[in-house]
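Contributing new records

If you add data, match the layout below exactly. Sequence lines come first and carry their own label; structure lines follow with theirs. Keep one chain per record. Anything else will be rejected by the validation script.
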Amino acid sequence: MKIADIEFGKYPIFLAPMEDVTDEAFRLLCKSFGADMVYTEFVSSDALIRDVNSTLRKLNIHDAERPVAIQIYGNEVAPMVEAARRVEAARPDILDINFGCPVKKVARKGCGAGMLQNIPKLLEITKAVVDAVRIPVTVKTRLGWDENSKCIVELAEALQDCGIAALTIHGRTRAQMYTGEADWSLIGAVKNNPRMHIPIIGNGDVTTPERAKECFDKYGVDAVMVGRASFGQPWIFRNMKHYLLTGEPAQPYTFGECMQILRRQVLDSVERIGERPGILHIRRHLAATPFLKGLPDFRPLRIEMLRAEKLENLLEILQRIEERYGTM
């Protein structure tokens, strides 16, 4: 599979763009476990052209991440075009436009999935951004605004006509947020539309190697994108790639190896943004990691782990967890 001139191997697995998650440290970690492409956190076009420091930092990318995409969002043509030009200067491999974020603070401003309520403006922005830059432009969106407006089959054709190089579809409407099951049948309908010739990337509920293979085999997508399933288990990319290429489950990591990876995430986070912010940032990964779930009498230690505010204390708690459960 290719996006423009970027060649991917068989069964590409991408790390989804996620705010407060896909910072440089996490992207590099997922890349080391086999993610074929990674995406930055969302970059607000308005904040970028105002030179907001926290937004400018999101443009920092490392050669070891490549291929890497920077994702922007906004609801007006001129700021999106200017933001696209600034992103191009940061030298990502791909510029991605976010027409899929469902969170209220984004969508209620008509940005992200909010653009699905104004398809003409969505297409106007897309065409203007494609024309403004020389790097490949891709789009990530959803099935539609709600159950009564699932427009993705027609929208995909219109976006392709704007000149995008690939399309990622999350199999839910904006109204669903992240509830219910992702509807991959409509993703498959887009992929199997004979008029479509750009790569189609499927997203939504890809949580296991078996499910990843089913998405490729049943719906014919060119790549799958993994989002929340990577929380607390960046090795999911290694597990998926191994299964997809061999048909066999990957050798599972030991408890101690998983703990070592979590420690690495903690230390990378603290080093990048400081002790307290780094610990707050990493809590969602600690809370979500599956290998800590179901441990007997773990609740008190879990609460202690998620309340720790000092690096020394958190590392000591992680050590106690490993000593207590590592030999089970």
